[in-house]
Amino acid sequence: MHRGQSAAKTGQRDEGKDMTDTPGIVITGGSGRMGQMLVKAVLASDKCHLAAVLERTGHAWIGQDIGTAMGGQPAGVTVTDDALEAFARAQAVIDFTAPAATVGFAALAAQARAVHVIGTTGLSDDDIKAIDAAARHAVIVRAGNMSLGVNLLVKLTQTVAAALDPDFDIEIVEAHHNQKVDAPSGTALMLGEAAATGRGVTLADVRDAGRDGMTGARQRGDIGFSAIRGGDIVGEHDVIFAAAGERIVLRHLATDRAIFARGALKAALWGQDKAPGAYDMMDVLGL
Q1: Which of 110, 206, 234, 274 could anchor a disulfide with 137, C-beta 3.0 to 4.6 Å?
Q2: Other C-beta atoms lying within 10 Å of the C-beta of residue 120
Q3: What angle do CA 272, 99, 3 make, to 5 degrees?
Q4: Could you tell me if 91 and 193 lie in one domain?
Q5: Domain containing 157: what range?
Q6: Are residues 131 and 188 in the same domain?
Q7: How far apart are CA 16 and CA 224, in angstroms?
Q8: Residues 136 and 187 in one domain
Q9: Binding site listing for (S)-2,3,4,5-tetrahydrodipicolinate
């Protein structure tokens, strides 16, 4: 930690960096589903290079070549648990891990002045405050979903919600694989925020989730959430606007996690020439 603080104070952003013709990308949580997908996306790109792959201390992959660990050919990058050293020689970090880890990575990425792309979900208000504080010193792109289609759905949801009055009940239904640990999904919450913004209300004031038992009638103007968990579902999201006699359904189906990896990589490259600050995929995609 002391090394990183010293570098930040002296402003020597490029000291120790891996100076090549393309930005160096660090992937955190390299053994996970998204981690491996991100590693593959970076290795396949001619616009960046894989600077490092991180895993938690004690993980079986530490010290192994990431390509070999993933069951393929050597990639020339050894899995490490030293985030400070990895970030110091990279230009971007792509992070789909867990809230506590992401908050720590945000501080380190800010010290290294590296773009931090965050796809982690389940972040608390305090987590987001800490991440926003780090964004004063570096570019942070945070989104509950990195795909173009989902971000278009978010924009459409806001537009439709603004056009319809509260006689149209809004329900957000999401489905994911049986290993997902948070609910509602980050994407569902993005959609809920968009619907609330369209209606000119705060989501926290109208959110209706976790119904079970004798809940009473649905409150007019509430935004409801339902979560499905099963099998290997990549991600499905429906936004339902339901009134007497008619329903409008906006839907996005993800069938391949590669869409999230491509979006995250696009964000990491987009952020290279941007001023420090907190951004989202709407900014990246110009929506």
Answers
A1: 110
A2: 25
A3: 60
A4: no
A5: 148-254
A6: no
A7: 49
A8: no
A9: 177, 186-187
CATH code: domain of residue 269: 3.40.50.720
Regarding whether 86 and 205 lie in a shared domain, the answer is no
Domain match, 238 and 273 both: no
Phi and psi, residue 234, nearest 5°:
-75, -50
**149-174 pLDDT per residue, tens:** 999 999 999 999 999 999 999 999 99
C-alpha torsion sign, points 276, 202, 102, 157: negative
- CATH number reported for the structural domain that contains residue 175 in this entry: 3.30.360.10
- Whole-structure pTM value: 0.79
Distances (CA, A) of 98 to 57, 85, 102, 119: 15, 20, 6, 10
Kindly state whether residues 11 and 40 are assigned to the same domain.
yes
Query: How many degrees, rounded to 5, is the angle at CA 254 between CA 132 and CA 33?
Result: 65
Phi/psi of residue 230, nearest 5 degrees: -175, 145
Query: pLDDT at residue 16 above 50?
Result: no
Q: Catalytic positions, please?
A: 176, 180
90: helix, coil or strand?
coil
Binding site per annotation, positions for NAD(+): 29-34, 55, 119-121, 143-146
The CA distance from 25 to 15, in Å, is 16
Residue type, 141: V
* Tally of domains within the chain: 2
Residue 10 has which token pair? 């002296």
Percent of the chain scoring above 70 in pLDDT: 93
